[in-house]
Every structure is written in structure tokens, then in C-alpha cells.
Structure to design on (512 residues):
């Protein structure tokens, strides 16, 4: 082939990439590191395929891609008022979240870099975190673009229901609570109460408060709930294997292990520690939100006592340089390359807080779990781990040195947990395409088809009366009532006329 022909082919291929590229805005305001791993993997794959991606995130990262532009909003993390290490009840978490989230959205949209985007740029699609940040959905309305919601956990019920998915308070309970596989009467009552408390709190208060933020930043008459309905495609970063099976519309896609990558070589000191351990290693980390160094003295003592009695070596993610009374078999470090660490053959068990991304990493690396949940969806995730047979759950309020010691020995010594994890891993990964490629395909599909209106459910925007045919049922009941009433009237009229005629005949006889 001649040189000019080769040059022509290269230019033609580049032109194809340019023609097929899109401007995509990704907004993930959550400060939790785990909430950004899946979206980051998607952003990198989109950029690799030639799309131009603007990523608004408080967790920035180094990248060599010229197709990725990062906007750092880490100032949002100062507005977060959670004290995760102490543990939070459902209502404590909900109250704090409702009070802080409108402020976070307002500050993000007031950021000069974001204001510049609103005033000077256009995007073909907006990929926004679908965890109640309803104001951010107005970005798609502003740019007249495709709106794609994404979550790194089970999508909250209100967001699923807004786009028409069927939500059952018992079969598909809210992500913050756990219900048994065969719930008792009291479990069902509990599920109903929680469902309606959350429904009223979110729809009647939180969404109402969010409306003022929408009016401040956008020229739109849409309400918060209508912006939830505006979602064209919802990507739920959770495999159906990990979730309660439920009926979902075609524009809601469940994809697990979005962020999991092939393991890389470990640092030399960790490699030696793991290689030289005779009985194996237990890895302990409570994630990026729950700091081991901030645990209560009682919880810290419980952990130290349990670790000192174990016959295993231990790697513990601990955010301070030192800690008193550290057992000889324990090595502390402020950060570990978790995915790479879990891939080592000598890791026998993973003690963790119940974050979905960490659970997925453990399943992918075939490491049994001991889950000690602290807040939010971690309680439900811990229940799912135990239900699937991938490990055991220890409720934080019931945490003692003995319960933790026994739980670790249970999962580390019995082969059934590792075998079950292999089964679950194979089920999750048994898909036509790898997770990230699946997500990117759906995103491109939604953009190509301008929101994929044909996948949307018409019933999503119907009123309660229309959807449940209340007016039709009422008219039919009224018709039956009127017919019944008319028949009774006719019978009564006929009977009264007959009686009247009888009376007349009797009076006539008397006169004769």
C-alpha cells in the first residue's frame, strides 16, 4: 500500500472516531471514595472510546487521557456531617442526609467552574448520581440532553418508582433495612412502616426543599419528582445476583463489579509479609468512611483482644501511625491496595463494614467475609452476604471479642464459604460483555437513540387515580349501584302499585 493511502486510512479512521464521539458530563457529588470507583471506570472507558468526558468529582485522580477533564469539588466533603465510626441508626442517617444534601447540591452548582459549564458549553448526555441528588438532574434539562442515572448500590425505591418500576415494600424493601427471605407478620408490618415513613419524608419534605435549589439555578418549571422521572436510563451498580430479584423496566440495568480490575503486583514489604505467613493472613478494613482510628475505646479493645487470640497474621487498615497494646501478629498501615491485596493466595478472610464495592472485590478474589455493618445499606449488605453463604455477619451492637474471634475462625477455616464465593462470582460474571463494557454500551445506546424513549414506561407519569383505574372502578361501582338502586325502586314501585290495587279492590267490595 502506498504511503498516501495509509495516511488517508488513518485520517478516515480518526474522522470516524470524531463523528462518533460525544460530549458527556458526569456528576458524582458523594464524598465516599467507593461511590466514585465504578463511575471512574466508566469515564475511563468512555474516554478510551473517543468520547470527551467532563467529570465533576470530589475524588480526583491522575489521568493521561486528553479526553478527560476533571473538576475538583472536594470542598463538598466539609459539608458532610456524618460520624460514621460511631454507627448510625436508619433515622439518624436519613435525617443528616436530608439536611445536608440540598446544601451540597447548591454549593456544587454555585461553583465557578460549574457555572462556566452552564453558561458556555453543551453536553450530549449527563451521567448523574441517582441517590437523591435530584437538582443535578436539571442539568440534562438545561442542556436538553440524555439523562443517565447511576448508583454504586441498590437504587433507592423512590428513584426506581419515579421511572415506573414496581416497588413492593416487603419483597423489595428499602436498601437501608433487611427483611428475612420469608418475613414474619411483624417483619411485614415493619417493612410497611419503613416504606411509608421514607415515602412521606422524601416526597413531602426533601423533594419540596430541593425545589428551591432548582428554582435558584435553573429556568425550569419541573419539580424535583418530575426531574426524577426525567431519567432516560438508570444504571444500578449492583448485580441481580446480589439483589432480591425484582421486576425492572428495560431502562433500568443492573451491572455488578464495575470497578473491579485485574490485580497488580504488591509493594515488596506486603508481598514478603503475605508470602512468609505460615497460617495465613486476615485483612481488616472498615472502608474509607469508617475510620478504625476513630472507633470507640470499647470497640478498639474488642478488636485488639480478638486479634491477639487468633493464630493468623493480620493486616489492619489503621489511620494513625501507632496504637497501644498492638499484638505482635498485627501489622497496621494507613492504606492498602485492597484489590491487589485480596488477590494474594494467603488471605484467608476479610473483616469489613459491608460496603458493596468491598464485598464485590472480595467475591471477585474469592475471599470469605466477616461483615460488621455500621450504617446505611451496610446492614442489608451484611444480611445478603450471610444469606448467599459468602461469609457471616456480626451486628455491631452484639460485637464482642468472642463473637468476632469465632466469626473469623469460622470463615477462615471452613472451605464451604470459599466454595460458595466461587459460585457467586461465576454467576455475577456470566454475562455477554464485561461489566464496564456493558455500561458503556448502554450509555452509547441511550445517546444514539436520544434518550431511548421507547424503553420508558408510560405508566410512570400517570396519576395514582389513572394508574390504578380508580376512576374507571368508581364509575362501574356507581353504575352497579344505580342499576341496583333502580331495580329496587322498580320492585318497590310494582309492589306498592299491586298493594294499592288490592286496597282499591277491597274498598270496592265493601262499598258493594
Amino acid at each position: 500500500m502506498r504511503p498516501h493511502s495509509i495516511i488517508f486510512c488513518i485520517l478516515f479512521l480518526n474522522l470516524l472516531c470524531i463523528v462518533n464521539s460525544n460530549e458527556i458530563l458526569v456528576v458524582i457529588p458523594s464524598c465516599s471514595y467507593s461511590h466514585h470507583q465504578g463511575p471512574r471506570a466508566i469515564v475511563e472507558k468512555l474516554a478510551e472510546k473517543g468520547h470527551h468526558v467532563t467529570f465533576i468529582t470530589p475524588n480526583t485522580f491522575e489521568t493521561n487521557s486528553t479526553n478527560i477533564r476533571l473538576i475538583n469539588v472536594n470542598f463538598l466533603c466539609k459539608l458532610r456531617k456524618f460520624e460514621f465510626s460511631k454507627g448510625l441508626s436508619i433515622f439518624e442517617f436519613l435525617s443528616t442526609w436530608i439536611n445536608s444534601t440540598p446544601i451540597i447540591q447548591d454549593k456544587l452548582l454555585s461553583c465557578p467552574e460549574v457555572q462556566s459549564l452552564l453558561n458556555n458549553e453543551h453536553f450530549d448526555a449527563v451521567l448523574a448520581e441517582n441517590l437523591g441528588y435530584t437538582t443535578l438532574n436539571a442539568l440534562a434539562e438545561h442542556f436538553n440532553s440524555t439523562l443517565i442515572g447511576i448508583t454504586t448500590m441498590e437504587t433507592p425505591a423512590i428513584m426506581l418508582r419515579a421511572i415506573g418500576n414496581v416497588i413492593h415494600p416487603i419483597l423489595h424493601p428499602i436498601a437501608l433495612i433487611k427483611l428475612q427471605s420469608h418475613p414474619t407478620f411483624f417483619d411485614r408490618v415493619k417493612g410497611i412502616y419503613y416504606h411509608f415513613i421514607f415515602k412521606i419524608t422524601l416526597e413531602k419534605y426533601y423533594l419540596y426543599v430541593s425545589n428551591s435549589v432548582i428554582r435558584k439555578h435553573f429556568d425550569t418549571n419541573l419539580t424535583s419528582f418530575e426531574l426524577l422521572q426525567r431519567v432516560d436510563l438508570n444504571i444500578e451498580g449492583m448485580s441481580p445476583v446480589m439483589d432480591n430479584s425484582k421486576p425492572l423496566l428495560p431502562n433500568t440495568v443492573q451491572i455488578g463489579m464495575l470497578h473491579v480490575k485485574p490485580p497488580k503486583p504488591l509493594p515488596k514489604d506486603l508481598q514478603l509479609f503475605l508470602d512468609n505467613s505460615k497460617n495465613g493472613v486476615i485483612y481488616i478494613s472498615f472502608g474509607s468512611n469508617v475510620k478504625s482510628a476513630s472507633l470507640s475505646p470499647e470497640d478498639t479493645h474488642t478488636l485488639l483482644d480478638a486479634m491477639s487470640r487468633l493464630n493468623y497474621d493480620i493486616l489492619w487498615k489503621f489511620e494513625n501511625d501507632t496504637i497501644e497494646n498492638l499484638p505482635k501478629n498485627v501489622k497496621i498501615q494507613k492504606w492498602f491496595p485492597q484489590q491487589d491485596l485480596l488477590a494474594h493466595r494467603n488471605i484467608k478472610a476479610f473483616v469489613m463494614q459491608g460496603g458493596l464495592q468491598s464485598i464485590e472485590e472480595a467475591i471477585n478474589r474469592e475471599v470469605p467475609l466477616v461483615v460488621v455493618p455500621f450504617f446505611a445499606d451496610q446492614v442489608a449488605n451484611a444480611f445478603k452476604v450471610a444469606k448467599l453463604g459468602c461469609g457471616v455477619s456480626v451486628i455491631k451492637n452484639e460485637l464482642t471479642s468472642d463473637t468476632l474471634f469465632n466469626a473469623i475462625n469460622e470463615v477462615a477455616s471452613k472451605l464451604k464459604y470459599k466454595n460458595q464465593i466461587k459460585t457467586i462470582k461465576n454467576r455475577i460474571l456470566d454475562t455477554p460483555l464485561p461489566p464496564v463494557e456493558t455500561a458503556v454500551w448502554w450509555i452509547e445506546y441511550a445517546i444514539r437513540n436520544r434518550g431511548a424513549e421507547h424503553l420508558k414506561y408510560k405508566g410512570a407519569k400517570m396519576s395514582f387515580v389513572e394508574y390504578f383505574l380508580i376512576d374507571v372502578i368508581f364509575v362501574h361501582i356507581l353504575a352497579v349501584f344505580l342499576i341496583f338502586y333502580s331495580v329496587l325502586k322498580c320492585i318497590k314501585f310494582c309492589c306498592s302499585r299491586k298493594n294499592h290495587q288490592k286496597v282499591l279492590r277491597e274498598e270496592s267490595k265493601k262499598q258493594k
